[in-house]
Amino acid sequence: MANTTNGNLLEVTGLKMHFPYHTGSLWTKKKGYIYAVDGVDLSIKKGETLGLVGESGCGKSTTLRAVSQLYRPTAGSVLLKGQELTTATPTEVLKARKDMQIVFQDPYASLNPRMTTSDIVAEPLRIFTKARILSLSKTEIDERVEQLLERVGLSRFFKNRYPHEFSGGQRQRIGIARALALKPDLMLCDEPVSALDVSIQSQILNLFKDLQEEFGLTYLFIAHDLAVIQYISNRIAVMYLGVIVELSNSAELYQKPLHPYTQALLSAAPIPDPAVERKRQRIILTGDVPSPDKVRTSCYFYDRCSKRMDKCSKSIPRLRDAGSGHQVACYLYNDPE
């Protein structure tokens, strides 16, 4: 597979994920769509971490699943190392997954309770060996499993234990070992620390950073915890109602948020310094999040924005550069075409 010419490991363009549903009785049945993801553009260079943040239900996890082809996107393009995945055959997608693995949110649900730790971590190696994408003997697989367990901070003597015998943090380490088994370039992390205690979160985040440095990994990292995203990410994309409303490097986004939604989101995050916290003004959003089953013809944040203008109700602002690579989808910083 050829690399993309601009150096991006992953390029996502116009990604949409619309889920159909039916309402009404048998005789008056009407079909509609939930617009979970409604036109997302993202790019990630090799070795960097792109954080994707937003409130629950905004489409973060759906975006990740559409990128990985667990969901087949309704529209858009997903290029991994120059290969288009949205039109790829199941065999081609399987081969591409060698370079792209997922760490799921809930370590209690993402591990098969009937499989030992060794079988869980070895499963992708066995699948790809059976598919003749890899050529590994049983001995080589067993050795690889022991190496992976020790690399994520677990003893090789745990390999015959079952998931219920581990703590939440240990289970997530098993999930990380499984994701590392195929030596991927890209890891898609779906809120991998949200189900863990705060003290364990820091350990897992440091593990992610160490693994990135050691193996040259690239992360698409999803979280709703702003402190987690700030710590782990080089760049951050802010998502609202299925679209990206702001994209910037981590330091600039936290120092100078541009979009009214980002400003409100950051104002809700606690600051450990009481003196700073007392002086800070909290931005309270009014109204409710619009229903995701409505086709939007205005700014996605229009209903809750205190800075809305007349033109915001007439067209949808697109993500554009506001200077120094800081992109924002807001008419306060760019005019409609």
What descriptive keywords fit this protein?
337 residues, alpha/beta, eight-stranded mixed beta sheet, four-stranded antiparallel beta sheet, 10 helices, 30% helix, 23% strand, disordered N terminus
Task: Characterise this structure.
The protein is of the alpha/beta class and 337 residues long. 30% of the residues lie in helices and 23% in strands. The chain has ten helices and twelve strands. It has helices spanning 60-67, 90-96, 117-130, 138-151, 168-180, 198-215, 226-232, 250-255, 260-267, 274-279, and strands at 8-23, 30-45, 49-53, 75-80, 83-84, 100-103, 186-190, 218-223, 235-240, 243-249, 320-321, 327-328. The strands form two sheets. The protein has an eight-stranded mixed sheet with strand order 6-7-8-3-9-10-12-11, with helices on both faces. A four-stranded antiparallel sheet has the order 2-1-4-5. Helix 6 links the parallel strand 7 and strand 8 (218-223). Helix 3 crosses helix 4 and helix 3 (117-130) runs parallel beside helix 5 (168-180). The longest helix is centred in the middle third of the chain and has 18 residues, at 198-215. Residues 1-5 have low confidence and may be disordered.
